[in-house]
Structures are given as C-alpha cells and as structure tokens.
Amino acid sequence: MREMERIVSSCVRRPASCVWGTAWRLLACAALSGLLDGGLVAQEPPAPPAAEPAPSQDPGIFARVDPSVVTISHERAMGSGFILSEDGYILTNGHVVMDVGDGEDPKAVSRRITVTLSDERKFQARVLGHNLDPDVALIKIDVGAERLSPVEIGDSRAVRVGQRCFAVGSPRGMRRTLTSGVLSNIERTDLGTFTTVLQTDAAINPGNSGGPLFDEQGRVLGLNTYADQRANNLGFTVPIHVAMVLQEHYRRHGYFRRAALPFFFAQETHDPLAAALGLPGHGVLLDFVEEGSSAWAAGLRSGDVIVRVDGKPCPARTRTDLLAFRWDLSTREVGSRVRLDLLQYEEGTWKPRAVEMELEEDTPAPAIGNQRGEIPEMLYQPLGLGVRRIVPLARYAFDLATDRGVLVT
Known about the structure:
Layout: H1 2-13, H2 19-33, H3 58-65, E1 69-73, E2 78-83, E3 89-92, H4 94-97, E4 113-116, E5 122-130, E6 137-141, E7 152-153, E8 164-169, E9 177-188, E10 197-200, E11 212-214, E12 219-227, E13 235-239, H5 240-253, E14 259-260, E15 264-268, H6 271-277, E16 284-289, H7 294-298, E17 305-309, E18 312-313, H8 319-330, E19 337-346, E20 349-358, E21 360-361, E22 377-380, E23 385-389, H9 392-397, E24 406-408
Parallel strand pairs: 7-12
Antiparallel strand pairs: 1-2, 1-4, 2-3, 3-6, 4-5, 5-6, 8-9, 8-11, 9-10, 10-13, 11-12, 12-13, 14-21, 15-16, 16-17, 17-18, 17-19, 19-20, 22-23, 23-24
Helix pairs in contact: 1-2
C-alpha cells in the first residue's frame, strides 16, 4: 500500500509527460497486490482492432471466367458471347448475329462474323442456328487442335431472388467489363417472351448482349439479352437451361424444331377463374380449338382443361406454370405421342377424359407486335408493299377469313 501511495504522489508532482508510463505502473501494482478494495480494479489490455472485412470475390471470379468470354462483331453490330466447348462452340444472342439487311428475311444472319478472344486473337465464325425468341444463337470457330476454356454451366432452375450475380461482356465496345448485382426476379413473364426470363440489376448495356451472367462460383446462369434503357438497373437474361436445349437443336437440325399440338389457344386457370368455373383444381384452359385441326381430331374442344400430360400434373395456376407447360410440349420430339388427361364440362359437371395424339412440327412464327417473326417477306419496292405466307396463328391474329393467298404487309 505504501508503494502505491508513493507512485500516486510521484505522478501528481511530475509533469504530464510521465503520466502514461506511471499509469501502467499503477495497473501492474494493482494486479500484483490484489487491491480490489477502495474502488481500484485490475483492467484488461485494450482489445485488438476488428478484423478487416474479407476482400471482394469479384477479381477472383473475373480471373476464372475471363478466358471464356468473347466479343462478337460484324458490319452492323457488336455483342458478347461465351465459349461452350473446347473445340470452339460459342453461345450468344440471336439478335447479335442477325443481319437486318433489306428486311425480307427476319432469319438472315451476317455473312462475316468475327470472334475476339480475351487474349485479342480473332477468328471468323459461322452461325449454326439462331432464334429471336428465345433469343439464342450457336456459332462455331475453327481453332484446329487448340483447346479453348469453356464456361461451367450452372442451374438456372435453382436460382433465388437476391442471389448475387455478375455480368461480363463488352458494353459499348468496352471489352472485358464486369458488373455485379443481384437477381431481382427469377420468373419474369410480362415481357411477351416464349419462356420466363431472369431479371437482374447488374448493369447491362448495348454490347453486353449474348454475354454470360455468372453466379458467385463462376457458373453461367444465362445469356444477357437486353435492358430497359428508359430505367435504371432493369436487365433481362435468357436462362441457361433454355439456351442449352436450343443449342442442342441447332447442332442436330440447324434450327429450333418446335413440337406442337395444332391448333389451340390456352391460358392459366388463376384462382378467381378456377373458382368461377367451379374447377376442382387448376390446369391449362383451352380458350379455342380450331375445328378440323389435329387437336380437334384428337378430341380437344374449346373449354377443356388439361390437368396432366403423360401422367404428370400440370396445375397451371400462374403464367409461369403456363409457360412451363408450353416449353415442355415444344421441346419434345416431333412425331412423338403424348397423352393428355382432361376435364370436360358436360351436363353441369366436370368429367374426366383422356386423349392421345401425335406432336407435329410447329409452323414458323408470324411477325406480331415487337416480334419480327420467322416468315420471310417478299418486298415489291416499286409497288410499296410486301407479302408473307399465312400461317394459322397469323390467320387468327389478323382476323383473316382464310389461310389461302398471302398476307399483304
């Protein structure tokens, strides 16, 4: 105790420069002598500073995926793409390789497409197949015996809203650009597309088209397709599971060989509609079945509700469910048979019924709204008009009395 009093007295008499050293001596004495009475308590040394946050993973992801991302250019456009296989197969958007030209053929592609790898080497590419909806193209470059660095394919059916993602491409021609964000929506259905699409707030600009959207592990979730230029952070991506089906069709057939049950219009049975119809559940409601069509011959009628396909339930309660039903049928083999379990309304009640029919190849899509369609147009410039073939969908879309003749555009 006398030692403690001596130190305190000494500290008071000394100038401020000695206070810090003396304070530590006080603490040491208190700890050694066990002086806990009188308000003096042993103190812990100051805590170490908080650990720095872990560094961003973006640079690591970019280093892994950069060799797999390419720039695609031709005389009319520039976009992005990614390497699908070591021998030079590359996925991109259909509109990236498209050549609008004189507008006669909506499926025309550019005659000279250049692919630039991440190491600046350039190759000429040929188009093996492409679509505008879904907006996917498969191109091929000849690399000889060299092996390229393909991407790793992710599962776009297992994504979640809020999941972090990264877009890599050539926005505005600025090659090897990475932007990051999250998945804002994983089943966008209100854009008029053939399938649901992913929505992201990662920056997507002209030139990003056809480039990959990666997850945090560097796996591809989809093909970046377009962004709403009137808004901020509204980008849209074709899911990779859709693109992989199409690239398989391109390799086998050179185009997307859609299967169909011609000819009917359908819609989902949302809760209010199902309740109004007195349905025991949900299914695909057939709004219209064309009389004399294959669907009609098989026994389908307007007002029927499809509840199972080959024994698998199809509870089309939402637009997402309806698009999934359509995608399932259209990606089956043309010529294969399918069994449909229906509910038909007879005598005031819903009665079960089953039909079996063969899937046919779908007709080319007509130009409707913002969709360019797939039907060539013959232009007669001196007369100021063009003509197109009439397909069943065009007949009903434009309220034509017959499918004979041609559609004047």
